[in-house]
Design a protein that fits this description.
Elements: H1 2-25, H2 28-49, H3 51-62, H4 64-67, E1 75-83, H5 85-91, H6 98-110, E2 115-118, H7 129-138, E3 142-149, E4 157-158, E5 175-177, E6 179-181, E7 191-194, E8 198-199, E9 205-209, E10 211-214, E11 217-220, H8 222-230, E12 238-242, E13 251-255, E14 258-265, E15 270-272, E16 282-286, H9 287-292, E17 304-309, E18 317-318, E19 326-327, H10 328-340, H11 351-370, H12 374-403, H13 410-445, H14 448-455, E20 464-478, H15 480-486, H16 489-509, E21 513-518, E22 521-527, H17 531-549, E23 565-580, E24 587-591, H18 593-608, E25 612-615, H19 616-620, E26 628-633, E27 642-646
Parallel strand pairs: 1-16, 1-17, 2-3, 2-17, 3-7, 4-6, 5-10, 23-25
Antiparallel strand pairs: 3-6, 8-9, 9-15, 10-11, 12-13, 13-14, 18-19, 20-22, 20-23, 21-22, 23-24, 25-27, 26-27
Helix pairs in contact: 2-11, 2-13, 6-7, 8-10, 11-12, 11-13, 12-13, 13-14, 16-17
Length: 672
């Protein structure tokens, strides 16, 4: 099962790698354009699939335009008469008797209230309905609530709906339902307004339908009915028209009897609720204090009053940007206040186009940054990936705070993050690919450890070298200079190429590495000064002789030339390995008398007519190989004689017939 999981994971990774490899093969600007377009498609897909969750996030962050610049001035035009815990303790559990409500209506009227809006429904007939209806009729202005029920799977029709608005077609994209909870017939003459909000996925109330259609009739929201009732018109007329520009709302509601009030609506006919004011700006008076006359009459005189429940036990509690438990009557007060100010927040009809333009602008900025110099691009893309979302959110907050325009921010922010991330991934992969190619090319000319040191460290003008114990092998093509003089350069280059390629393969097969190719010779190195390294070098030398000298080199040289042959010298010892030279022109070097001795031993293969010669230090590690001493020699340029050894060569014409085990005692005689 674990293997299946791993294979499944690899199956998801491979297409990604293939896609990335495909993009890297394209010209840079083409790959960037493809990624920017892909980021757009991915953004649209994410917004569609996770619509509810992302809408909640957009609304929560977007409300900062209000909460960061909240209005603290006291709202004096509207007061809330709260049916709170104090009132319930005095008058009993809710709902109260109709006579109690009649006393409250009369007390408000006596206090000089101009208009009282009751966020309350009286669906069932009860004793005292007539007294309450008479009290409402006797007031200077009053309206009750009614509740069209949206998205209900059950049939619910209670009471009698009244006070529809004429002149509005229910086919104009308004909310429709056939279910409702209305007041009983005793209150048919009292003005009505609905209190049905749009509940978001997180339970918050952010929008309210301006009109809801029931059985072909459009019923206004309670705050709108307040304006219609205030003018005491017999017929409530209104019209809904489409927005006339990209900056205008999708629809506009205008009341026939109130031409100065134009209410912006979205495409579904909803008003957006403003949360610009702090909750403390709405004055609340306990209904118990009103009934007892224990309040300042100036607070209610000639004002508008919303009567509603605020006690937690009643259940009319909704979350808002300021609190998770806000009385529903406060939401009605907010709508009413924004209508009085003719400053209802709205989303422009061209908001989607503006979001797209912001995303295109982000794409252009990211495209320009990605095409800049590598250092600017590597730092600029992540910075832009942070600043562009911040800019989009800031634009939304500023428009909401200054003009009450809800533009939105989610799409350009999500696009900027995805596009910047995709471009960073592409540029990172491109840089890594380029650096990998550079390192590969560097490694083709230098040993891998040296190539790594050069690739991943800054150049220095100081000596950067270390002492190491190594085994060295020097191989040289004898008579190659004369061969090159007699043959075309292409043929010489091909022969030298084959020699270097095959020799490098053999050295690496035996655990070594090529230190350098120089002219028609090479220098290979093994780490360590032990028998294992010496044996690996010897085996590599023997395989070179078998594979190169016997099989690759021409067997019939041009007339007048000696045949090509391979001479190899091996020795062990201490060396200084590293880089020297100025910072702008460093060179890798291998220094020490071990290097010189190895090169001189290789040169002696010509004079002694032996293919392989081994220095005495390496020979000490090869006592089991039956090496044959060739005598002690004073090597060119050196002052100390060195004993040289060779492996037994059965077919060699230079074999001296010695079959005894190698003796590491210095042999006298030989050339000096």
């Amino acid at each position: 099962m674990g293997r299946a999981i791993v294979m499944n994971a690899l199956g998801h990774i491979n297409p990604f790698k293939h896609a990335l490899a495909f993009l890297l093969r394209l010209v840079p600007y083409g790959a960037r354009l493809i990624l920017l377009a892909f980021a757009g498609l991915l953004t649209a897909s994410i917004v569609t699939v996770f619509e509810d969750s992302l809408d909640t996030l957009e609304e929560s962050v977007g409300a900062l335009g209000w909460t960061l610049n909240a209005e603290a001035a006291l709202e004096r035009r509207i007061s809330i008469v709260a049916i709170d815990e104090k009132s319930i303790a005095q008058e009993g559990n809710w709902p109260w008797p109709r006579d109690t409500m009649a006393r409250l209506v009369t007390a408000l009227n006596d206090a000089g209230v101009q208009l009282q809006l009751h966020d309350i429904v009286f669906p069932e007939a009860a004793q005292g309905d007539d007294a309450l209806a008479l009290a409402l009729q006797a007031s200077r202005g009053a309206a009750l609530a009614q509740v069209p029920v949206l998205d209900s799977e059950q049939t619910l029709r209670t009471g009698v709906l009244s006070h529809a608005v004429s002149g509005v077609s229910c086919s104009a994209g308004l909310a429709n339902t056939s279910n409702y909870i209305a007041n009983n017939a005793s209150f048919a003459s009292i003005a009505k307004g609905h209190i049905t909000p749009i509940v978001s996925a997180d339970g918050a109330i952010r929008k309210m339908p301006a009109l809801i259609c029931v059985d072909g009739n459009a019923y206004p929201a309670l705050p709108i009915s307040a304006f219609l009732q205030a003018l005491s018109t017999q017929v409530w007329g209104a019209s809904v028209t489409a927005g006339d520009s990209l900056f205008a709302p999708a629809q506009m509601l205008q009341l026939d009897s109130y031409p100065g009030l134009r209410i912006p609506l979205d495409a579904q006919g909803n008003m957006r609720i403003s949360y610009r004011n702090l909750p403390e700006t709405y004055r609340a008076i306990s209904a118990a204090d009103v009934l007892n006359g224990d309040f300042d009459p100036a607070m209610l005189d000639n004002g508008w009053v919303l009567v509603g429940a605020t006690a937690f036990g009643i259940g009319d509690i909704v979350p808002t940007p300021y609190s998770g438990a806000t009385p529903g009557v406060e939401v009605q007060a907010r709508i009413l206040g924004s209508l009085l100010d003719t400053n209802v927040p709205y989303t422009p009809s061209g908001a989607a186009l503006f979001m797209m333009l912001l995303s295109i602008l982000s794409a252009a900025i990211l495209f320009a940054i990605a095409g800049a110099r590598e250092r600017f691009s590597s730092y600029g893309l992540p910075i832009a990936g942070l600043l562009l979302p911040v800019a989009a959110i800031t634009l939304h907050i500023e428009l909401l705070a200054s003009n009450n325009i809800w533009l939105g921010w989610l799409s350009p922010v999500l696009y900027s993050v995805l596009a910047a991330s995709a471009l960073m991934l592409l540029e990172q992969a491109r840089v890594r690919g380029e650096r990998s190619r550079v390192f590969g090319n560097l490694n083709a000319y230098l040993p891998s450890d040296v190539a790594k040191e050069i690739a991943y460290s800054l150049p220095s003008s100081s000596v950067n070298a270390r002492r190491a114990q190594v085994t060295l092998l020097s191989a040289d093509l004898r008579n190659f200079s004369a061969f090159s003089e007699a043959r075309p350069p292409e043929e010489s280059a091909a022969l030298l190429h084959y020699f270097f390629v095959r020799a490098a393969e053999i050295v690496e097969q035996h655990g070594g590495r090529i230190h350098e190719f120089k002219g028609d010779s090479l220098l290979a190195i093994w780490d360590g000064r032990d028998s294992e390294a010496a044996l690996q070098a010897l085996h590599a030398a023997e395989q070179m002789q078998a594979s190169i000298d016997r099989d690759m080199l021409p067997q019939h040289p041009p007339q007048g030339l000696e045949p090509l042959a391979l001479g190899i010298g091996i020795e062990q010892g201490s060396v200084l390995i590293g880089s020297i030279g100025p910072a702008q022109r460093r060179t890798h070097t291998l220094l020490g008398d071990t290097v010189t001795i190895t090169l001189r031993i290789q040169e002696m293969t010509t004079e002694l007519a032996l293919p392989i010669l081994i220095g005495e230090c390496a020979a000490r590690q090869l006592s089991e190989q039956r090496l044959e001493s060739q005598g002690s020699y004073l090597l060119a340029g050196l002052r100390t004689p060195h004993v040289l050894f060779s492996p037994p060569l059965v077919d060699s014409p230079t074999r001296r017939g010695k079959s005894d085990p190698v003796s590491l005692t210095v042999v006298s005689g030989g050339r000096r």
